[in-house]
Amino acid sequence: MLKDILVHLATGIEDDATIDYAISVAFAFDAHLAGAAFSNDEVPAALLANGVPPLWIDEYRQQSQDAAKSAVARFEAAVRRAGISAHAGWLPESLTGAANLFARMARRFDLSVVRQAQAHAGPSDLAPLIIEAALFQTGRPVLVVPPAQKGGIRLDRVMIGWDGSASATRAIADAMPFLQRAKVVDLVMVVERVGGEKAAGADIFEHLARHRLAVELKEIVAPQVKPAKVLLSHATETGADLLVLGGYGHSRLREFVLGGVTRSVLAASTIPALMSH
Predict the structure, then answer these.
(1) pLDDT score of 87 more than 80
(2) What is the pLDDT of residues 135-162, one digit of tens each?
(3) Which of 154, 147, 170 is nearest to 239 (CA)?
(4) Which residue, 46, 73, 77, 174, has fewest beta-carbon neighbours within 10 Å?
(5) Hey, what domains does the chain have and what are their CATH numbers?
(6) Is residue 246 within a helix (H) or strand (E), and if so which, with residue range?
(7) For residue 242, what is the enclosing H or E element?
(8) Are the C-beta atoms of 255 and 242 separated by less than 8 Å?
(9) pTM of the predicted model, to two decimals?
């Protein structure tokens, strides 16, 4: 059951796609929705190196705070229109501090909703840090919403990218509230040869069928194509409304290095993606 959802309120953007989608999820599951925005109180090194006047630094911080307050205001107006249970707030933090704080907050919620990062995010962009923190530091699923998302949640066709991994298994379990509402569930495997992973696919297919899901197993043979590209192309071709995928990454000097499929999906998916680690 989804009864408590946290959404990151991104600042400095012109659309409310993530907020609107999060509201629709909360409405569909009759869940409470909390919004969190962050202002950057860490002064860029370039400003300090150039010896700018203290007034400029104060103005920089004020602009960041105003952006966070504006994000909260947009959220509060949207939830009032939707008539759902919600609350929101903002906090001053550094980029790394904001991501870590969001992760600690998200551990107390059933699901976190975040905005997809830009393909070429700059060093001052918070979105990639928020996504990685939500995925790898919470033990909870994260729903990544692309900026191009139009409208609220739809679950006519949900697609699962299955590779037999522990993270993919976790993602399926975490996505069960969504899968149970789907009209069709596509279980998609990208393999190098026919029948190579048939047993693993059959086992998880039977598991989902026992949950009375309308599941269809699709094995795509693509030995020379990256799995992420195959999965995203298939999602587009079939008109999938939601992608369910295990998030892979490993720690190196306390910094997460994303796996190829995870990185590609987070950067290029045109539909919401629910991921777990």
Answers:
(1) yes
(2) 999 999 999 999 989 999 999 999 999 9
(3) 154
(4) 46
(5) 4-145 (3.40.50.620), 157-276 (3.40.50.620)
(6) strand 242-246
(7) strand 242-246
(8) no
(9) 0.90
